[in-house]
Amino acid sequence: MTISGDAGASDSWEWVGPLLQTVDPLFPTGSYAHSLGLEELVQMGQANDAENLESYLRDRMIPYLENLELPYLRFLHDAAAGEDLELLLALDREITAMKLTRETREASSTQGRQRLRILRSIYPNPFLDLVDQHIQKNETGCNHLTVFAIQHSLQGIPNRVSLLTWLYQAIAAQCVASMKLIRIGEQGCQKIICGCMRDATDIVRRSLGVPREDAGWFNPVVDIASSRHERAHVRLFIS
Question: What is the pTM assigned to this prediction?
Fold first, then answer.
């Protein structure tokens, strides 16, 4: 199966196979090595049990996704659909600028480059090669969100499906990391994911109304946690 930018791909459901493959935990983006600040948040008492973890995801992470990452995923998805590389690079630089700590910038870039490398191997496409050429010239930070959007656009995955997928993966990744950090089992994680995704349709709908000039979210607790994690003497995760 090859990547298709054909508008009819969504109608024929050809995009379902690639979507299932690339959201599967077996798809190696390296996300398992990153808690994205959660490890230090546990140490700070912000997410040190199941109840606090769910509160953190609902009150801090989901608003961040709704007001920043989901809108930018939409902008990137649309730019990739038009193969507008200049706009993609501009959006990627904006995302990088909004990541205030080195750890979060490097984690996003590492996962983005890994996703791009694998996609070029299993779903070859000239536009992916062009993006990679710019990365090799250090013209883009290659955020994970950017490569995710390019992949979904080229594969004909509908925008709203892409947004729901990113929302789910972001929440699930934090729950997976939490099992190494707090007393919570798989069933507890599934309850939290179910609770957070209960309003997923409304979260995505609201994100669709966020224009580029208003996209953004300030979450100092996570930035402080990431900064502290970078200098921690002992840690389980890279970021």
Answer: 0.91
